[in-house]
Amino acid sequence: MTRRKTSGGRLFCADRSGTETANEKDEVFRVCLFANKQSRKTAETGCMYTGREEESEMQAIRVENLSKTFRVKRKEKGMRGSVKAIFHPQTEEIHAVNGVSFSVEEGEMLAFIGPNGAGKSTTIKMLTGILYPDGGRVEVLGVDPTKKRRQLAYQIGTVFGQKEQLWTHLTPYDNFRFFGAIYDLTERETEARIGELSERFALKEFIDTPVRNLSLGQRIRCEMVAALIHKPKVLFLDEPTIGLDPVVKENVRELIRQMNREERTTIFLTSHDVGDIEKLCRRIIIVNDGQIVLDDSVEHLKSHYPNEHAADIGTHEREQEAAGSGDSSDVSLEDIIVEIYRSQGEN
Amino acid sequence: MNRLAKQDGIVRCMPWRKYTVIYRSVLLENLQYAANIAVGFFSYAVFIYTFIMLWGYMYQTPGELIAGYTKEQMIWYVMMTEMIWFGSSAASVAREVSTDIRGGNIAYLMNKPYHYTLYVLAKYTGGWSIRLPMYAMLAVVIGTALVGPLPRFPLAAVPAMALCVVLGLTINAVLKMCISLFSFWIEDATPFQWLYDKLLLIVGTMFPVEIFPETLQPLFKLTPIYTVCYGPAKLIVDFSPEKCVEILAVQAVYLLAGCGLMFLIYGRGVKKLYVNGG
Amino acid sequence: MLTAVKNQMRVCFLSIKYNMMREMVNKVTFLTNVGFMVLNNASFLVQWLILFRLRGDVGGYTFREIMLLWGLVAAAFGLSHILFARVFSLSDLIIGGKLDAYLVQPKNVLASVLTSATDVSAIGDLLYGMVLGLICSRGAGGFLLYLLFTVTGAVVFTTFALLLGSLSFWFVRMDLLQSQLVMGIVSFGTYPDGIFKGVSRFLLYVIIPVGMAVWHPVHVMTDFDAGMLLTVLGYVCALTAASVIVFYRGLRRYASGNLMEARL
Fold it and tell me: CA of C147: how far to CAs of A249, C217, C221, in Å?
């Protein structure tokens, strides 16, 4: 119990975790896990980033010891392998998500990142009810996505930068009306919401142009409006700025910030673009091999990590500018993330 | 005219080796997908089975002749025309040429050191070299099991029949290519492609020409039906050396004229592309 | 409950409407597609004219009955492909992991999937079927029966495809079997049942639902039989229930991620 308090109430509510065994609790609290021992200290202090101490804060997402294992068929190469696979099918277990625990406060903007294949999308799929977990618990807005997927769907929104949700031959306006219908909004509610959002996202000039004739920047704004039409409390953004030019990227980020500020939308962001993370999120979770390897505030990570890993980070850059100042605060977030990914890969 | 002759010259000087290489690569690629080809067997079998049932009903007494065909001959006729249709899949030629021209890919392909039309034909040949023998085997199995072998079938004439079938397949592809090449000028050649296919399918593959009203028969014999499906299939179910020579001669004429037309249209089309810049 | 159903219907209706709008963006292509499908179907008249020149009946059917049969297959095929075209490529969606998009929506997954695509040329099929139905069915009552069987036939097409497509949740390469067997309804259904005998006839009632989708209805229309009509209706309900159950069983498997191997 004491340990829970030290984490500033940011982790799990008492009534929920009270039923767990001591062992499980340990699992739950091993949120911050560095592979190498020297950094454990950083991790523990990093967990308690400042600014969110209030016990009363409601949690938008709670994940406890979440696990997902896929069974994949193994086949040896060539004809013989194919024949063998028929008679002696060999399977291999892949722990896509392996004991992940974290929670997200209502109104928080969280970056959930990791190298390709780290388990990010599997986690998102479990949070949105697309996949059922094998172990652990998920609660999004107090709802179990596994059991009440449709009920939850009314309260969350999703934007996938690489997948279009809009009908390209229709105008944004018709699209929004369609999504309004999907979320059971009345005509009047839909109209009001379209008016409000089109103003905020500056869609007025092209709201009656078919989506296929829009630029990528205009289109992603429309994608976001479509995802926001039903005032979701949690918004899952998967690579929202992929393929956009720097100006439009900045524009989209500003809109996300604004959404978060004005409607207190909780943002769950995955992106390979460090700019997105740096400019939007205060907190960052890095996953690798299905496990959380870091859960820290962006600010803390930037100021503390370089000091402890001065030797590892930016070695190449340093070699190039041999007479560099050596000031560790110059190290960019990108370098830090690359270094964390690399050190994980080695282990 | 001058330009055409020059182009012809290029074709003649070109080593044929490159087309055999193209042919072999497609052949090897298709070999790996032999299992996928077998899936089409189902449609073929359904079609043939229905026809066996249908003709089984239409022929009321054994030994009866309809339009000069016995029941076995009638069914083998359909099996052979359908074998050519399923085994060649000439639609792929039309699809490829249309997509290349409409998608603008042609601009890159026509400057390659081969003649585009022959390149497509080599690929097509690589495709049917696998499919056709597979369908031929299936046809023989279904035929001997459910219909019975053809009476007085001359085994010695099989090479001549095979030659006839192969020429028919090639003529079909050349003609379909000619239609597709019109995409240089018109938005979409699919309707014409469709009309040509319908002519072959409805008039050429389901029934032998003799079953149609007599006034129409000479007309049908002038169309590609005679060289592409009727000729080869008729030869297989009712072989005679005279008929074989006749069909081969007509096929030779069709092939030469078809290829000439194909080179002509292609040359014109490419010239138009150069003038208008695609 | 009632509002939920109403809202669901509204979404499905919008979905189908928008699908149609997409296809009609290019008017010429749209009309050509529809027109050529009508012509395509009409071209098979040649086959039947030839066959009836040879004999007065084919498989016990008159020319009018054959046209009734042909029209019914075309209309049912058309209706199912206009409204629920996606079900015919359900295997691709499942194997490609593309059901995710429907799972994050607060609507019925099956309904959303079914109505998410349309097939324009199918309008030509439906048109042709309706024309044949108007010409060949007996009186207003006959045509009403024809309409009813168009609907039941479309349901058989859709649910049979749903049943086979849903097997993709368990087995790979069901996409091929799905399209082959569904097209089997068309291939066999455009011929009279009288030419099939014994085992094959039995299989066409049991394995491929040609009998219940086409032949029984034609018999009811030519020689009304209430028992047969009820059999058809009962069969349609049973097939629908079975396919929906299998789909949701499979969806549970999808959500458990055991299909990942197919998606990796």
Answer: 55, 11, 11
